[in-house]
Amino acid sequence: MQNWFRRIAIIALAGLLGGCSATNEIDYGKVKLVSVSGTITLDGQPLAGAVVSFDDPETGNFSFARTNSSGTYTLQFDSAVDGVTPGRKQVQISTVRSILGLRGEEGEEVGEASTEGQKAEAKKEQVPECYNKKTKLTVEVTPDSSTFNFDLKSDCSTSGAS
């Protein structure tokens, strides 16, 4: 929930610094974004319906996506624009997490405001904690490095981005 409040603050600050329009829209031309996509597998099988987020622990900024039936994802900066800001990111992957503004496979928004809500409690997490709450995954996002595949293991053995 803290990340959500940080995200709102960052968006509001970007609007103030970038010059707000009458509708308080973000000037996306002033936000440097990299298009990032990849595939996530768990024990060699595509991980469908998982939420992946690339978090910047220093700023609280994050981008997010939901994997499709093939385990592929494309990060969203927010509900309107795809991408992620460049830099070092901590990666979290979860099958129970929900994020407000998260688009589904066909572009519809399916996320909710709470990541710890009752629906999340009803589902069983398929991804070990070492990839979500206690993640060890990190990546460096650059314009030249924008595809990140993750081969997760149920036993939390070392895996990384490729």
Give a quick summary of the entry.
The protein is of the alpha+beta class and 162 residues long. The chain contains 2 helices and 8 strands; from the N terminus they run H-E-E-E-E-E-E-H-E-E.
The CATH topology name of the domain at 34-142 reads Immunoglobulin-like
Major sheet: size, sense and barrel closure? 4 strands, mixed
The N- to C-terminal Cα distance equals: 29 Å
Number of DSSP helical runs: 2
The string of secondary-structure elements, in order, is HEEEEEEHEE
Radius of gyration: 15 Å
Determine the structural class based on helices, strands and strand pairing.
Answer: alpha+beta
- CATH class call of the domain at 34-142: Mainly Beta
> In the CATH hierarchy, what is the architecture of the domain at 34-142 at level 2?
Sandwich
The proportion of residues forming helix, as a percent range, comes to: 10-25%
What would the principal axes of the Cα set say about the shape? globular
Proportion of residues in β-strands: 15-25%
- As residue ranges, the low-confidence spans are 12-23, 105-121
Number of strands: 8
Mean pLDDT: 78
Can you tell me about this structure?
By secondary structure, this protein is of the alpha+beta class. The protein has a domain of 109 residues: Immunoglobulin-like (Sandwich), CATH 2.60.40. 14% of the residues lie in helices and 23% in strands. The chain is built from two helices and eight strands; from the N terminus they run H-E-E-E-E-E-E-H-E-E. The strands form two sheets. Strands 1, 2, 5 and 8 form a four-stranded mixed β-sheet that branches. A four-stranded antiparallel β-sheet has the order 4-3-6-7, with no helix packed on it. About 18% of the residues have low confidence.
